[in-house]
## 1
Amino acid sequence: MFDTLGLLCVIWCCVVLFHPLHADIQCMGSEAQESPITNVKMNWIKMELSWESSKNFSKYKCAIRNSVTRSVPKEVNSSLCSFPVQFYMPLHKGVSFIIEVPDTNISEHCTFIRGGMNGSAIENFSCVIYNISLMNCTWQPGRDAPGDTQYFLYWQNSRNRYEDAMECKLYIKDENGRNTGCMFQNVSIEPEKAYFLVNGSSKDALIQFYDEYIQLYKIEILTPPLNITANCTRDSVGCIITWQPPLTSHMKDTGCFQYEISIRNKDEPEEEKKDDRSEVRNGSYEFQNYNEKKKYVLKIRARGKYCRVSSNWGEWSEPIEFGQGKDYFIFVILFLIALGTISVTLLQYCLFKRYCSFKSIFSPIPQPREKFNASTDEDIQTKYVNLPKTHCTEEITMVEEMTQLSKKKTRGFPNMKENGFP
């Protein structure tokens, strides 16, 4: 038999959570008689179950369960029952709770049913903490959600501090302007689970909510270990590698970490490089295969072990090189010197060939003249006279006036023959 007061629509609207939750609570009492337990309510912020009873019972038993987990029935002396943190369950998956009166057959079974349009709730919700105090949460819109659906994220770091509930202040939006994620700053990791709720609103339909409990230390990506050093010697001890634990906001115990050390030979060909990986618990490691003539590359990362620290491997440290390795410096210097010498020589040769004559620079040295074999001036003149001549043919046209002029000149000089002239 359904309790008429048990069927109600829960509107969760606290001071911080401005958008309501749409859900129903359906309760069913004992079939033999009408149940005195009525007006069942659930405070989802404090995880407190309350009810009214027409009879004054001194004791009650209450329990909560879902498809996977069921709490141990808890005995209370009033009509108010608070559930411990380890039994906090996401409401969107469906939750039921039971109220019983000991030593009687009176009981009330209630089921939480999420309201809203099917397929409108967000999907693939996940969060990650990085850089010690930054947190990103992302999700995808519901596959059947209306186009104008907008989502809002609320979270509470500890369910024991109800005033800590807050809405996201820095949303991540998609190309349609819908909120698909949120970024948080100054996040501290508490021992208890944090509560996340994503609600939605639309003009066309009621949007189903999504909620999740997350242990924050499990989603943290640890930063690399700090102050990594490699102290190498030539004796059989090899190299002693030391470091300090990564920084976290909640764990100061150095014994809570496990480390993975990666050492490889830098001078090996890329296809032959092998990682020498080891896992240790303390903050030092002895590298026994050290060869001072080789250069090595060292990286370290950490994860939690047996403590409230993420069991996933964190970020690798920046590569650190140690060892001498092959000395390529002298070869580089010699190569640069040879290359420079060749370049200068070629440049000089090109400049001389372009702008200078080797004969003008390196003119021949004159030989001394032999005293007895020297040629006379007459020989030189003879040789010069006997040089081949260039023959030219000239045509002379004699005119009569030239003949008359010649006769006149002969008359003017009567003694020319007497003086030996022809």
Note: The first helix runs from residue 329 to 355.
## 2
Amino acid sequence: MCGAEGMDTEAEAVPTEAPARPLNCVEDEAAAAAAAAEDSCDARGSLQPAPAQPPGDPVAQASVSNGEDAGGGAGRELVELKIIWNKTKHDVKVPLDSTGSELKQKIHSITGLPPAMQKVMYKGLVPEDKTLREIKVTSGAKIMVVGSTINDVLAVNTPKDAAQQDAKAEENKKEPLCRQKQHRKVLDKGKPEDVMPSVKGAQERLPTVPLSGMYNKSGGKVRLTFKLEQDQLWIGTKERTEKLPMGSIKNVVSEPIEGHEDYHMMAFQLGPTEASYYWVYWVPTQYVDAIKDTVLGKWQYF
């Protein structure tokens, strides 16, 4: 009896071993644990917060709402303009310190007209080398643009070039215009009492008022009004006003008046021959080039 009890006690003291698990189960659990650890690392990486924007950074706080104010115009004083071309108005903002050449590039981006084909006018032709501030462009100003495609200009320009060359050749053969009888009878009247002041040796843009105080070939008073918005030249007399599209004027010729070289006699060619010349006398010399550029346009000479 005592031996049996000792055996039982000894059996209770020996710990019971857990049954051994198959080897393949242990490998599966290890692989699962490794995959879980990798997923946990990926999750922690994706949940990292984005770096904070530095305080006071305007780019981080808001985006530019007006595309015209961005880029080159940022930080520069802008002026609002109405670009009018082909009876269509375009509202744009450009830096006030833009030059006439830069304005042409802006117009090119809007209308597709190459800068060389543009005649840009604001109280006369806009100089390419001066800024909008220098020519005193104000906000809301209307900028007139005249221009055509290259093919259209070539088709119209070729006859004009031929007419200009013929006119110059004829002028070289003849005596000075102011000595010819048809002109002497007007010039011998002397200067009109209300003739506009002249500035010899200077070139100025067209004034904002009509050019007045001049004679026509009949000796009557005449004034020239340049309607840039309509691209027209108005020739006004006491009796009537002729409204001429500038594109219909084939040439403009002029010559200083002998003894009064600060004034010119000038003719607008309205038809194919000299018989169509409309003569104007006592044009102040400082406006001669501006008149030719405005009527014919520099863009025609290329």
Note: Residues 166 and 172 are 10 Å apart (CA to CA).
## 3
Amino acid sequence: MVRSNQTSMVTEFFFSGFPKFEDGNLLFFIPLLIIYIFIIMGNLIVCFAVRMDTHLHNPMYNFISIFSFLEIWYTTATIPEMLSNLVSKKKTISVTGCLLQMYFFHSLGNSEGILLTTMAIDRYVAICNPLHYPTIMTPRLCTQLSIGACIFGFLVLLPEIAWISTLPFCGPNQIHQIFCDFEPVLRLACTDTSMILIEDVIHAIAIIFSVLIIALSYIRIITVILRIPSAEGRQKAFSTCASHLGVFLMFYGSVSLMYLRFSATFPPILDKIIALMFAVLAPCFNPIIYSLRNKDMKIAIKKLLCLQKIFYASES
């Protein structure tokens, strides 16, 4: 569909996905602020616990700490803007601000997806090839994989954002969502929107490819674990993978609902719920899963909290 009859260029977008009554804004603002603070604090605790406990200085926990660090910035790309819009009457964002939000949100999401795939391969090597694990997953390789995940996650999205920045926006400026995302923004472009389908296909291929790698890794891992003769050995092996598997299901489950729909349309309220689950709720559960489902992590967090108590006691 082409809207070439529009001449005035749009300089900002209006979010129409927020409540239209003032009391409703405050009703959503307070829980969202509490969740955001919890996400920041929870992931910071995980990061510091891993860095300060020498027992956790191994590939799996290093990947977890990097993932938690990325989660802080992943949520910061959208939630502060949501909070601002909830208390603002304008509920707008500049076109440049919208492009930057999309770029950082999806780049950080891409980096997290690549890191989850790396973590699945790490668990595969640890359980399926334990004798060679120390020589395969060396500290140098883990550093390279972590840096590579972040660099690739940011570079792969540059051409797409650069292309969107060249599109003319001269018609309607209402984004029917609570943050900037590809599909609702592309629909506002005054040009042929058939490119949306190509965007959907590219995103779908990337998601399905990552899910297949992780799923195949865990199918193989579970097969090997079930062959362990002792029940204690099986339980220990499962416990090392349970937290990562939980995060994988949360992350890719919400991503799939958001981006593996193609031409299917959902009611506006369901669209917003899926967006909240994808951008807010999944990151909220990640530090809980890593801290409560992992014995070593719980011990490290208790040590960290004890150190904080000792520090504050000495200061007073």
Note: Residues 1-6 have pLDDT under 50 and may be disordered.
## 4
Amino acid sequence: MEMLNGFLFAWLVTLSLATIAVAQDDQSGFISIDCGIPAGSNYTDIITGLSYTSDVGYVSGGVSNSISPIYQSNSPERLFLTVTSFPLGTKNCYTLTPAQGSFGKYLIRASFLYGDYDETGQLPNFDLYIGENYWDTVTISNASIPIRKEIIYTPSTDYVTVCLVKTDTTTPFISALELRPLNITIYPTLSKSLELYARLNFGTLTNQYIRYSYDAYDRIWMPFLWDTKAIINTTQDVLENTYKVPSAIMSTAVTLDPLTATKESVSFYWTANNITDRYYIYMHFAEVVELPVTQIREFNIYINDNLFYGPMSPNYLSATTVYTVSPGYGVERYDVVINKTAVSTLPPLLNAVEIYREI
């Protein structure tokens, strides 16, 4: 069983949209802030095509800095070259005013690369808040490694505040802050906030992460190399459902390797950070092989030995999302097992998965 780092009820999304997952160029509603660049400046990132602007006007009291030259050549993205730090005050907040206001649901991502910007070598540690609620703790353990914190948030006001809170003698800082509007119907939750635990692309052929412009919502999909599984793929586009997982993700999948498989299931697990944490899972499926009439791929999905969903047969070149509508909690480990049914002639497959923690 591969590690990803009666308590759940599953729901199914199969409704296909009229559009095929191709590269997107619509950034309407996006707020993309590169912290620390001069007031009034902006640019278009040459890799993603995203348009970034200065954080001046979104926050007050910050100090602009550039990361140390020894880290600049290794910076993976332009937005990590500068930071805004907050040596004064305990709590400093960015205020974002999205076009949809309190009627929207948003993906919000805060990014951090220390890069010894202050030339002290003191690795910062501070808290992150969304509105008045604790979001997460930012702990920098390596000056050259970027950290991203991501949340899906439904505000109760027309604005969103993201706050950096000083907790020790080190200074809070931030490299970038991004907001992306989502379809209000996706990622349903019993709370206002879902913190990203993992978002994984299975069956990747490139071992590269995928985001905008392929993903219309600018989710960042990390490749997951599953050495014990076989990869199947298609060169054709996969029709999106309301979750809009891009064809670049859904056109590949993992399944069992017929030469090495010792069982008829695809399985993985993750461990809870705290036994009281409440988790939501979203599994994305699409058949990428055109099956002859004599073949069938059908499976059941179990979580901690409880039937989560099934039986199901993924649709050919069309995305299906199976997800929780009430969270799982109260255990230290979550085991997901996708079992081939008795009538199935083919093993299960899995294209992608997302796991979120309720906060």
Note: The longest strand covers residues 193-202.
